[in-house]
Amino acid sequence: MKVLGISCGRKLGNTEILVKEALMGAENLGAEVELVRLNDLNLKPCTGCNACVVSLLEKSSSGDCVIKDDLKFIEEKIMECDGLILGSPIYEKGPTGLLKILADRMGPSHDVAFRMISKKVREEKGITSGKPVDERSFKTRSASLIAVGGSEWDTLALPMMQLSVISTHMDIVDKILVNWTGLPGSVLFRDEIIERARKSGEHVVKTLLKQEDRRISDEKERPEYIGEKGICPICHSKLIEIRNEDKNYPAICAVCGVKGTLNVINNKVKFEVSKEDSYHAHVYLSGKFEHGDELKNIALKPNPKIEELPKLMEKYKNYLSYSKPDKK
């Protein structure tokens, strides 16, 4: 069993300390552990070219990204691992920008449903050319998220970190939010946080040890979650969007996308999700397959007037030149 730690913070900063403590807990229970500092990698932003989606859904191929940088390195580490400890400092209420870049690059290219579709069509059509998807995509993984901030400007941190692993279908078994650690190493004076991080790493391993069948399936009971319970009963997010100010349904979970009814009952906020609506949650394969169908049948479906596109584009081709810094 291998547990990977990804630290998005500075070398030996508070985030890295907690990630390492969690890895120590995992190692203590027999796991092989490894640590990657995201800042050591060269990761370029996603260009939105859709090459990965076309590869998966139209060519029944691997979905590899066409950008040449260090994505292959971190992709291999993630595919290889069974458990993940993901830690990030909090900047402007969210995790680091480099983690968002990784999330954008891993998103569609590593979406489990897209990869399942690619594999199924490839097998049905007997396709032998090209590169198939990585079979390791279809094993269950457990993950713990650790967000570390200097104040309570933290609203988007854990939700965005959770979104960074949602496409790979990892089971989030713990989430930790640590505030008031603005100075280097200050977390080391908070014994309860250090102990909490170690417990989190141990729980990732315990979760995996209980799973005799590691194949991804919506039919299985979800692993125990030991973090603070959120409002969403499915993904434990506290971030709920109100779409219509005069209606309490549908309210939307900002992380798993499930629709629910938001009420206040006995002075307590309740986000209630029906069984029918739960199938659409993005943390379930059913929700991911639905997303794949939407892309294939709507977003990636050519417009009937596609032949008119070159003429329509002429208006924008020569409008303004790009402002760029002077080269020295």
UniProtKB/TrEMBL annotation:
Residues 1-161 form the NADPH-dependent FMN reductase-like domain. The keyword Flavoprotein applies. Its EC number is 1.-.-.-. InterPro entries: Flavoprotein-like_sf, FMN_Rdtase-like_dom, ISF_SsuE-like. Keywords: Flavoprotein, FMN, Oxidoreductase. Gene3D superfamilies: 3.40.50.360. It is an enzyme of class 1 (oxidoreductase). This is NAD(P)H-dependent FMN-containing oxidoreductase ywqN. It comes from Sarcina ventriculi. The gene is ywqN_1.
